[in-house]
Specification:
This protein is α+β, with helices and mostly antiparallel strands. Helices cover about 35% and strands about 40% of the residues. It has 1 helix and 4 strands, in the order ββββα. Strands 1-2-3-4 form a 4-stranded antiparallel beta sheet. The radius of gyration is 18 Å and the shape is extended. The relative contact order is 0.12.
Length: about 80
């Protein structure tokens, strides 16, 4: 598999931070037509995760929470 070069890197910042300069949380990296989140895990170490994996996990967490809340309402009545 050939290594594709990063087309664009965009810093994602916490706009609701209590700090005057909004801290960088992670970067969004575009490589070809793919989108990745890139997080610094240590000195000179980065972890890159595909955007679709993040979306899938967020949607799963939301559905699980909705199911939990629905079950709690059913048992409370």
């Amino acid at each position: 598999m050939e290594k594709q070069r990063v087309v664009k890197r965009v810093s994602i910042r916490n706009r609701h931070s209590k700090y005057k300069s909004n801290p960088r949380v992670f970067d969004v990296v575009l490589i070809g037509k793919r989108v990745f989140f890139e997080v610094k895990t240590g000195k000179d170490q980065l972890e890159r995760i595909p955007f679709e994996d993040v979306i899938e996990q967020v949607e799963s967490a939301v559905l699980q929470e909705q199911h939990t809340q629905s079950s709690q309402r059913t048992t409370a009545t």
